[in-house]
Every structure is written in C-alpha cells, then in structure tokens.
Amino acid sequence: MTIYLKLIWSYLKIGFFGFGGGYAMLALIENEIVTPGWITEQMFTDIVAISQMTPGPVGINSATYIGYVAPAQTSAALSSPIFGILGSLICTLVVVLPSFLLVRYAGHYISRHHNSVALQGIFAGLRPVVIGMIASAALILMNEENFGSTSPDIIKSIAMAAIALGLTLFTKIHPILLIIAAGVIGCFIF
User: Fold this and answer.
1) What is the distance between the alpha carbons of residues 177 and 162, in angstroms, rounded to a whole number?
2) pLDDT, tens digit, for every residue of 8-31?
3) What pTM value is reported for the model?
4) Which of 2, 19, 53, 71 has its CA 20 to 30 A from that of 11?
C-alpha cells in the first residue's frame, strides 16, 4: 500500500513543478515514474502516444493510466482492478490539486498586480524554462521504442515524421486523418 503514498508524493511534485503543460511535464513524469521501475520505458512511450490520441491533457491522461497500472506492477497483491481504479483516482486528483490551488489563490494576486515589475520578471524567467522542458520532452521521446533499433526503421520513422510535419504545416488535412493514416501505414511498413 505504500505505492499509493509514493504516487501521491510523485504527482504532487509533478503538479507543482510541471509548468508549461503536458509536454513540459513529460520529463518529470519519466523521472518520477519510470526511474523507480513502476512502469517500463516502453509503457511510458505507449502512454504518451495514447494520451495524445485521447481527449484531455497529457499530464492528466498519463496520471490516470499510471495510477491504474503502477500498483499491479509493484505488487501482485495489488493486481485487482479495484486497486488500479483507486490508483487512477488518486493520481488524477493529486496531479490537478496544485494547479487548482495555484489558480485559486494566486489568480487574485496576479490579476491585482499584473503590472508589477517583479511579477513580469517571474513570468519572463519561466518562459525559457518551459521551452527547455518541452525540448527535453522531445528528446525523451526520441528513443528506440519510438524510432526502432535498426537503420531502416529509423529512416522510415524519420520519413513518416517529416511527411506528417509537412502535411500539417502546408496542407489543410485534418490531424485525425493524419493519425489514422500513420497508424495504417505503420501496420504495413513496420
């Protein structure tokens, strides 16, 4: 049962220090969840992919899923779905709690002092950190699980990513169609 306390502590840290949204949280989530061995690197990569395709923020979706699988991964006694549902509820609530508290209590202060030089300096200092955390998430996802382990697989993966990027930037193809097409094409070439 100590897994729940560890998950609470980890997701409190993720919630308090995950500035910049879901992508910025990925490095924190990986460090807090994969490093202790609660899930594997492959599971983490799969969670990120699934979180992108499901409605809702990446941080919350991944918290819900990790809360469900982590208890069973750490102890066979906790493999019942009831323990997974409890973990999902705990992780989901704990990851949103810091944001809720910050918005609730800091929002009033920020709106009153939005012209403050100190407050503007704080936000100016956070911007490069958020960009760095998002870049870190991109580097985390450039792994063997996503791009393959052989040169032909890596070339195919990079080509698919470049084509998808080009289609996204230069055409009006709906992103859902790109996701479906990538899945179908991936079934055939991998």
Assistant:
1) 16
2) 999 999 888 876 677 777 888 888
3) 0.65
4) 53
